[in-house]
Amino acid sequence: MLDWTMSTPLSGSEERTWAMVAHIGVLIAAWLAMGFLCPLIIWLVFRDRSDFVRRHAVESLNFQISLLIYSALAAVLIFITFGLGVLIVVPLVVIGAIAALVVIILATVAASGGNDYSYPLTIRFIR
């Protein structure tokens, strides 16, 4: 019989799967500007069961929080410049969105291979 208690360590395959979900799962929640929810839930559920999953979930969570902050700063820039900031912000947002997608895919590939990954330009809120 399988033991699904919170203290049961994860197998290597389960670790890689949940680490990958911590990264790629943000694409689903990102449509509602809540990309941080997926890694947050994975971190809360698996942080004591697997150090590997914890590291990936924390890395993804920090990246998503950083993206949220950068987006808020872009909105403030547009507001303070009475809309003129759009000329700067929109191209940066497009480039940033493409770059974010690329690094999320790279992190997912690293997790599937059992390797660690560090997102660029990430503020480390959670360790």
Automatic annotation (TrEMBL):
<feature type="transmembrane region" description="Helical">
    <location>
        <begin position="20"/>
        <end position="46"/>
    </location>
</feature>
<dbReference type="Pfam" id="PF09685">
    <property type="entry name" value="MamF_MmsF"/>
</dbReference>
<keyword id="KW-0472">Membrane</keyword>
<feature type="transmembrane region" description="Helical">
    <location>
        <begin position="94"/>
        <end position="114"/>
    </location>
</feature>
<dbReference type="InterPro" id="IPR019109">
    <property type="entry name" value="MamF_MmsF"/>
</dbReference>
<feature type="transmembrane region" description="Helical">
    <location>
        <begin position="67"/>
        <end position="88"/>
    </location>
</feature>
<protein>
    <recommendedName>
        <fullName>DUF4870 domain-containing protein</fullName>
    </recommendedName>
</protein>
<keyword id="KW-0812">Transmembrane</keyword>
<keyword id="KW-1133">Transmembrane helix</keyword>
